[in-house]
Each structure stands twice: as C-alpha cells, then as structure tokens.
C-alpha cells in the first residue's frame, strides 16, 4: 500500500461530499450536473487506485458503495429530467412564436388545425413518471407550503423555469377549494359556472384539497422540525408516505378514500425486508415492493410484524392525525391493521456468547495491527483508537453506541478511589448551558452514573485522558464522526455501527439475534450473575422501574456502597476472558515489543465534526 496516500481520510471526506450531493433537488443547473459527473469520475478513479494498493473501500467506509451507486442513479435521473424539461421549453417557445406570428398576421389562424381535447388526449405530466429511490424523493420534494407567503408556486426555483407541481394557495382555507362539478353542470349555466369558479362546496361529499401527498409531507416535515419533533420518528413517516407517493401516483389528499386506504393497508404486509435484494432496488420501500412483485419471494422475507405495526402503521396514524388537525384531510382517521401470516415474528436480541466475544477481541485491532489505517490487518502496532475503546467500554459498562461519542473528559470523575462515567446532558457544576449544547440521550433515565471496572484502567484509559488534556482536547473520542440526520440532529452511534457491520462479516456471525446491542445484553447478564440488587441494575443500565421517577444528576444516581463493592470486584469467567485477550498486547506495548501509535493526538486526524466544533481546522 502506498503510505503517502491516506485512503481512509479520502473516502471519509468523499462520503461527506456524497451526502451533500445527494441532498440536491432533482432539478439542478447544468453547471451543477457537470460538477456531479466530474465527481463521479473522480470517485471511480479513486476506487480503482485504492483497490490496486490493496485498500478495500468497503472495509474503510461501508457506506461508500451504496451512496455512490445512489449518486450515479441520481445523475442519470437528473440528465433525463433535464432533457425532458428542455423539450417542454422548446415546445412552449414554439407555441409562443406561433402566437406571435398569428398576432402579427404572418400566419393565419385558420391554417392551424384544431385538435379537440378528450379524456384520452395526452398532456405533459407535472411529475416525473418513474418512481425514485427514497433519498431522491426526499431531495426533490416540493417546497413546503408557506401559508403566509402569498401566491407563489410550490416548485419555484431561482436557477431555472418552473415545472408547476400544483396551484398555489395563500391559506389553508383556500387550499380546501372544491373543484368538483356536478353531473348536471353545463358550460352555459352562468350561475353554476360562477359557483364553481369561487369554490362553493357541495356538502354531499367531502371537499377536495389542492394538496398532494408530496406537498403535505413537505409541510408535515417542516412543522415537525419547527416544533422539535423526533428525527427518527419523522424519518419513518417520510419513508412510508413516500411509498404512497411512489405506488399510488402522489394522489390528492381528498382522493384518498376508503378504497385507497384498503388498497394501501393490503399492500404494506407485502413489502420485503432489504436482505437479499440487489442494492439498486433498495432505495425505497416502493423499489423493494416492486422487486418482490416482479421476481417473486424466493430468498426474500417480509417485514416483521412489529416493524409493520409499531413502525409503519403508527407512522401513518401520526401523519393523518396531523393532516386532520390542520384541516387538510376531511375524512375520519384511517385505520391500518392488515398483516400477513408470512410477516416475520420479532427476534429478541441475545447476548454475545463466549466464543463470539473471543472472536471479537482476538482481532488485530485489539492484539496488534498493521497501522492506524489498517486496524483489521495483523501487525506490530497497538492503536487504541476510538473503536478500540468503544468496543471495550460498551462491554464493560453497557453504554449504548449513541452515548459513547458524546463522552467528555470531565464526564469521568474519581471519588473515594473509584472512577465513574457520568452520562449527563451537561455538567451542572459548570453552570447552565444553552439548549443546543445539551447532550441528547435516548431517555431521561439514560442519565446515569456508572462505576468503571478496573480492567478499563489497567488497559490505559486514564493515559488517554491525560494525553488529550495535555493538548487541550475536552472530549474522549475526537476521532468520532457523528452522522447528521436530515433534521440537524446527530446520530452518534454511526462510527461503531458501521464498524460492526464490517466486523460481523469478517468474523462470520451466523446468529440473527446478535447485533451490536448484544454487548449491552452481555453486560446485563454480567450484573445478573452478581449479587448486585435490582435497583442498582436499573441504574447501571439506564432503565426505570414501573413506579420510579428517573432522578436527574448527583448522588441519587450512584450505587450503594454494597453494590459498588460488588460491581468493582466482579470476577467472572467472562471478565477474565476479556482480560486474557486484551492485556497481553498492552503489556507487550509497555515492554516496547509493539509500537504504540496515537494519531488522535494530531488534530488533523480528528473528525470534521470535532475539528469544526473545537476550532482545530
């Protein structure tokens, strides 16, 4: 491998750039499209060079390949739409020229044939005919309905002509205009014509709304972000509503009647899990559904019943509930409940077995690797980077992946000769902080105090803390690169979950009930096999009992002296196993038999997030 090229850094930077490009609307300027095509060729060349040097992009950045493939498909779609729009514009220019010629007398109107319109007469569609992958559809969604902005088109953009998505409205009440005509309507009936022109409602049926599902989804997303809604919950709503848009033609809200509800309800159980589906068909629920319908169900599995009910059914209820609250949907709240006997039952996640723990901590990252860039290849270096400590800490404290990346040096405190990890939104001893600076955890009970097992100290955790303090770094893992969600929140578990995806394949885990979360179950079993009381167990795990109110910060979160003694003195075959796997490499490094490398002490090796946050650009 050519050590002069840092492929890890290159692929990480290019993944960030890919995400920026993937957020582009489908209608982009010619210059932007050229830039995207150039970037596409650059990435192809980079991939070839990396592979030639023995550097596997899938190992470095597991997200690179699927993001790149989606990026290429977006470019193809954007080029096709650009050609289509240009055709429409040429047609309109020709029509305008002809009208001008008629007005100037250059062409007689009588020479132009008149083709009467009929229900079968083709017209230019307002939307792209081909369904797009979910991330593309999210990117090209219409501009959220601005109910205070006056009359303007939802698709208005500064970089080119509009393709009109829907007529604009200036208020919610205007959006509920009834455009239906009664069967007895006659064009020469002036009174009826006037009624329908101003939108007089026929009370015999629900009124039609001008909003389509794509427009309603954009408005829902904007409102949910404004009120501080949960980003993960919002993403599920977007995913399932996009399925309606893709499979049902982006209908008007008012057209979504009982028959449409029944159709959707019966379709949902037949969405397959993404496993064994080619990547190019996993971009959206609709793409997966279409793949199963076309190719059959051999080697495919349906969604779990829990995913269907707790995920998609609940998300649809939230979405339609909001529409009804905003008076955008004038029908009763739809009920979704259909399942199939083929839907899978949920699998309870299990703890890692002794054999699986042995496989994990026998990898080169923990026993001696090639270099900071090649941590999974056996070598003579000890690189205790953020992934090294993330795995060890998750097993010995039970913390969640999303809690690890936010740990600050001051969150580790000593009292009475025992070190604690304080998981908290902020340090109250330092005073109040702005809401934006409060660390987010899964639940209120996730705020907790965890004593650190002595093995963590023996492996050198305090040395890392001292090294980072010496260079003015306040966080434990400055290399940690969180993933920004569409709403601006950070997904802190991303580096570890990405790593586990690769590690799982490298080790060859065959059990379906083993995930990264299994380290937390392993820790829970460790506690269960000790004499620690149940109340202390809940504190350590960040759980709340049925009759408990989660305490906030301070001594209410600490264990009793009895439980603390039990925890710090836990000696079990499992703990001994991890110590026997990890301590030899630490001792070899202390003797100089392994080269100790600490690339995180150079801020150039920090994540972009922390370099920007801590001003180390």
Provide a concise account of the structure shown.
By secondary structure, the protein is mainly alpha-helical. The protein contains 24 helices and nine strands. About 18% of the residues have low confidence.
3D structure, described in words:
The protein is built from 24 helices and 9 strands. Helix 2 packs antiparallel against helix 4, helix 9 packs across helix 12 and helix 15 runs parallel beside helix 20 (518-528). The longest helix has 40 residues, at 64-103. A 3-stranded antiparallel β-sheet has the order 4-5-6. The protein has a two-stranded antiparallel ribbon with strand order 1-2. It folds into 3 domains: 7-110, no CATH class; 133-151 and 207-346, no CATH class; 354-613. The chain is mainly alpha-helical.
Topology:
Elements: H1 7-22, H2 30-52, H3 57-60, H4 64-103, H5 134-139, H6 172-175, H7 190-198, H8 213-226, H9 231-248, H10 258-267, H11 285-295, H12 305-325, H13 354-361, H14 364-367, E1 369-371, E2 374-378, E3 381-382, H15 386-397, H16 401-404, E4 412-415, E5 418-423, E6 448-451, H17 454-458, H18 461-470, E7 483-484, E8 490-491, H19 494-507, H20 518-528, H21 534-541, H22 561-568, H23 573-590, E9 595-596, H24 608-613
Parallel strand pairs: 3-9
Antiparallel strand pairs: 1-2, 4-5, 5-6, 7-8
Please describe the structure with a list of short key phrases separated by commas or semicolons.
three-stranded antiparallel sheet, mainly alpha, single chain, 24 helices, 3 domains, two-stranded antiparallel sheet, 617 residues, 9 strands
